[in-house]
TrEMBL record:
Keyword Transferase attached: yes
Pathway: Purine metabolism; IMP biosynthesis via de novo pathway; N(2)-formyl-N(1)-(5-phospho-D-ribosyl)glycinamide from N(1)-(5-phospho-D-ribosyl)glycinamide (10-formyl THF route): step 1/1
Active site: 111 (proton donor)
GO biological process, one term: 'de novo' IMP biosynthetic process
Listed name of the protein: Phosphoribosylglycinamide formyltransferase
Binding site for (6R)-10-formyltetrahydrofolate: 67, 109
Gene: purN
Pfam hit, one: Formyl_trans_N
Reported function: Catalyzes the transfer of a formyl group from 10-formyltetrahydrofolate to 5-phospho-ribosyl-glycinamide (GAR), producing 5-phospho-ribosyl-N-formylglycinamide (FGAR) and tetrahydrofolate.
Catalytic activity, EC: 2.1.2.2
GO CC field: cytosol
Residues of the Formyl transferase N-terminal domain: 10-188
Length: 202
């Protein structure tokens, strides 16, 4: 699906695992609900990531990049594919400040809490939900934000609250936040950013 249509923003998604947030983007795009976007590349930091298969099934170019020279190889690929927007979807590597500065307001991340709660260095995956439950919060949720040099510190694009229920485990809370917040907010934020970028292309 490497469509170089001039009125669409070219999107790369970076993953490290199963790619459920990637699938949410693919589904919304295939439903025609992301008209300003063209997903053209999926890159994984793990060779065995199932998200690569999801990309393959959707006809999106995909590849694994190992630790050595990761950012240099990634940058070369992004430039080759003329990428406009980078989406971090369950991507567990921290990108350097030099990398982030190259794409101001063009790198989007989804975080499984209501920032500024349970965010920053060391808060990722189930660790976020474990911390939320240990604190006894009654509401959690997800935040989509632009990425800057500070972990989870970039400008917030969208947030959605999700209730914490009696008897929740980190796994059940994680699933509810994915279904009720992450999978909805992330495609919307990518489309919103793509619309802004394509307006500037005119």
């Amino acid at each position: 699906m490497n469509n170089s249509s001039e009125n669409k923003a070219r999107v790369a998604v970076l993953i490290s695992g199963g790619g459920t947030n990637l699938q949410a983007i693919i589904d919304r795009w295939q439903e025609g609900k992301m008209p300003h976007c063209q997903p053209v590349l999926v890159v994984s930091s793990r060779k065995s990531a199932y998200g690569l298969e999801r990309a393959e099934k959707a006809g999106i170019k995909n590849c694994f990049i190992g630790k050595e020279g990761f950012e240099d190889k990634l940058l070369a690929l992004l430039e080759e594919e003329k990428i406009d927007i980078i989406v971090l979807a369950g991507f567990l590597k921290v990108l350097s400040s030099d990398f982030v500065r190259r794409y101001p307001d063009r790198i989007i991340n989804v975080h499984p809490s209501l920032i500024p709660s349970f965010c920053g260095d060391g808060f990722y995956g189930l660790k976020v939900h474990e911390a939320a439950l240990a604190r006894g919060v009654k509401v959690s949720g997800a935040t989509v934000h632009y990425v800057n040099e500070i972990t989870d510190g970039g400008r917030i694009i969208a947030q959605k609250a999700v209730p914490v229920l009696e008897g929740d485990t980190p796994e059940t809370l994680q699933r509810r936040i994915m279904e009720e917040a992450e999978w909805i907010l992330l495609p919307e934020a990518v489309e919103m950013t793509a619309e802004r970028i394509t307006e500037n292309m005119k």
